[in-house]
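Chain A, query sequence.
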Amino acid sequence: MALVAAARRLAQASLRECSRRSAAVSRGAWRTAERSFSTAAHPLRAENKVTVHFINRDGEKITVKASPGDSLLDVVINEDLDFDGFGACEGTLACSTCHLIFDEEVYKNLGPVTDEEMDMLDLAYGLTETSRLGCQICLTKSLEGLVARVPESVADIRQSKDGAA
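Chain A, predicted structure.
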């Protein structure tokens, strides 16, 4: 019953917003906010990147540049990093395969851990006091030079008990 009431309120709010926008368009209010375009060259996107260092299971350090706002899972996928089993649920917070370990100082700057993330971390192999899920860590400029260590093992339900995929 509560679900039906919530859906009804959401539908009514959407209708009000749609009506408000339609009224603004019909009055011509949308024309008052003109966009300005510039032909000047924009700075290279590389200046807006954040450097991230991953230490893989073999101890190899892999350095990449990523955009602020990307999650660490996005970085692994976009840079095509080969971390076996990493990100099985594609960032839906339904597994712990994007488990990463951070230094204490970095961990303090990552922001709060949600209850849902803690529940998934409980399933991770090699859990430490500074463990987080990569899908829940969004990059900011303040995380420049971040070092994330990939644990030696991963809890991936897609793999059988004998280790075969």
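The longest strand covers residues 50-55. The chain is about 25% helix and 15% strand.
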